Amino acid sequence: MGGVMTKADSPKKAWIPETKLEARMVEAMQRREAEGTTIKSFNSIILKFPKIDESLRKCKAIFEQFDEDSNGSIDQEELRKCFYKLEISFTEEEINDLFVACDINEDMGMKFNEFIVLLCLVFLLKDDPAALHAKSKMGMPHLEATFQTLVDAFVFLDKDKNGYVSKNEMVQAINETGERSSGGIALKRFEEMDWDNNGMVNFKEFLFAFTRWVGIDDIEDEEDEREI
């Protein structure tokens, strides 16, 4: 997501967010990046997969609570009620922007993995000075601790702290593991994240890839099989 702007007097690229939400996401991430990260290697991120997977799966009960018609997805009206009950005070426009951004299937309903990504984006954005009204606690300390780990993981990958992860940054992060095949692994992981193939990965794209890495998509696959 984002467009490229090049300067004639500089070989560097400045990545321009395409939407207001993406701009806020990048700004919020850059503020977090200024604080640093406790993560020191990509391997340490991998070691956290089981714990992250367990924590995110517990979010299924929250998802089902707000999926009032039990159709396996949360629509915009259900999402508004969700924000109200969780005391997340975003504006109507902000809620709609988040919904559109996370409804990657564009079917007007958020599946479980899309719902997790949305909640993590809320966690990131609630510290945005432009959204001070949204600083109320989400009431999910364990889940918020997991979201903090995901933010830390992105901060570790974003070496130049511009709010995006490039292919070179991914290669650099995985090369630090010292494994022979690390270059190929890095490119594969980057392709899994960069689903719009524009060469840069924002936090939302990273989150969607991460839910697949830890196996969250498997929950939906299992449920689809049971329905069949």
Describe the structure using short key phrases.
58% helix, two-stranded antiparallel sheet, 4 strands, disordered C terminus, two-stranded antiparallel ribbon
Could you explain the architecture of this structure?
The structure is a single chain. The chain has 228 residues and is mostly helical. It has a single domain, classed as Recoverin, domain 1 (Orthogonal Bundle). 58% of the residues lie in helices and 7% in strands. It contains twelve helices and four strands, in the order ββααααααααβααβαα. It has a two-stranded antiparallel sheet with strand order 1-2. A two-stranded antiparallel sheet has the order 3-4. β1 and β2 form a beta hairpin. α6 crosses α7 and α7 packs across α11. The longest helix is centred in the middle third of the chain and has 17 residues. It starts with a strand and ends with a helix. This is Putative calcium-binding protein CML21.
In short:
The strands form two sheets. A two-stranded antiparallel sheet has the order 1-2. A two-stranded antiparallel ribbon has the order 3-4.
- List the uncertain runs: 1-13, 131-137, 224-228
The CATH topology annotation reads as Recoverin, domain 1
CATH architecture label: Orthogonal Bundle
Instruction: Give the tally of β-strands.
Output: 4
Strand ordering within the main sheet: 1-2
- Write down the Rg: 18 Å
Helix proportion range: 55-70%
Question: What's the overall geometry?
Answer: globular
Terminal Cα span:
35 Å
CATH superfamily membership? EF-hand
- Tell me the name of the CATH class: Mainly Alpha
Arithmetic mean of pLDDT = 81
Beta-strand percentage range: 5-15%
Structural class: mainly alpha
Name the helix and strand elements from N-terminus to C-terminus, one letter apiece.
Answer: EEHHHHHHHHEHHEHH
